[in-house]
Amino acid sequence: GAVVSQHPSWVICKSGTSVKIECRSLDFQATTMFWYRQFPKQSLMLMATSNEGSKATYEQGVEKDKFLINHASLTLSTLTVTSAHPEDSSFYICSAGLSSEQYFGPGTRLTVT
Amino acid sequence: GQQLNQSPQSMFIQEGEDVSMNCTSSSIFNTWLWYKQEPGEGPVLLIALYKAGELTSNGRLTAQFGITRKDSFLNISASIPSDVGIYFCAGRYGGSQGNLIFGKGTKLSVKP
After folding, report:
1. Minimal Cα–Cα distance from B112 to chain A, Å?
2. How confident is the model at residue A99, as a pLDDT?
3. Distance, in angstroms, between A77 CA and closest chain B CA?
4. What is the pLDDT of residues B6-53, one digit of tens each?
5. Distance (Å, rounded) from C-alpha A77 to C-alpha B36?
6. What is the distance between the alpha carbons of residues A28 and A70, in angstroms, rounded to a whole number?
7. Does position B94 have pLDDT exceeding 80, yes or no?
8. What are the chain B neighbours of A4 within 8 Å (beta carbons)?
9. For residue A72, what pLDDT is reported?
10. Using DSSP, how many helices (H) and how many strands (E) does chain A show?
11. I want to staple B33 with a disulfide (CB 3.0 to 4.6 A). Which of A97, A99, B20, B90 is the partner?
12. Is A104 touching B (CB cutoff 8 A)?
């Protein structure tokens, strides 16, 4: 149980385009989902907390207009990287809250050329 | 802000050896979680701890929630090659869905 999926697992896009990443909790409902960014050999950096039916809470320094988060249902949250630039290239990981634990998706590798 | 100090940063051990890593903080946490991450994958939850002093095992893994609520350790007994990966501790100081603070990770390498 407690399986979280992400789609796509990797994506390459051109600079200036937008990319949408989906995060789904497959066998449980998650009121809260989290989006992280991870640079090579670094720890996870929380970008935002997403609550179903309400606006996401962004961490300091994360541009909400650039990283659009939508949590339309208890099993789906999406992260859209708008007008992507090469510096947005990273590993994006979502997690879903279940009770007091967080279960992570497999991550999405974004490369912006 | 809240910070976790995780050590060691990396470990190179022989198969069969025991491993110990820990996380400390100057702040009190009410939940400690330990995760393992393999290259190109998301972190996988290994053990969750909710009470000060709690000692929990998951197979060859044992973790404890420090009595002061400011630290936690993870032990791996009789390591095997598939234990290779990066282990992260994570602490929470708020409610059940409060944000997690992650340590910087311990990279474990196991020599067969």
Report:
1. 23
2. 83
3. 16
4. 999 999 999 999 999 999 999 999 999 999 999 999 999 999 999 999
5. 23
6. 18
7. no
8. 42
9. 83
10. 0, 11
11. B90
12. yes
By C-alpha distance, which of A88, A12, A101, A19 is closest to A47?
Answer: A88
A59 near A47, Cβ under 8 Å?
yes
Number of H-type helices and E-type strands within chain B:
0, 11
Q: Which residues of A touch B33 (CB under 8 A)?
A: 101-102
Residue in the block written with tokens 């994570």:
B90
The pLDDT of residue A1 is 73
Q: Check: CB of residue B88 under 8 Å from CB of residue B100.
A: no
CB-based contact B42 A107, cutoff 8 Å: yes
- Residue in chain B closest to A59 (alpha carbons) equals B99
A84 touches chain B (CB under 8 A): no
Nearest Cα neighbor of A22 from A98, A63, A75 is: A75
A44/B88 Cβ within 8 A: yes
**Measured in whole angstroms, how far is the alpha carbon of residue B76 from the centre of its chain?**
10
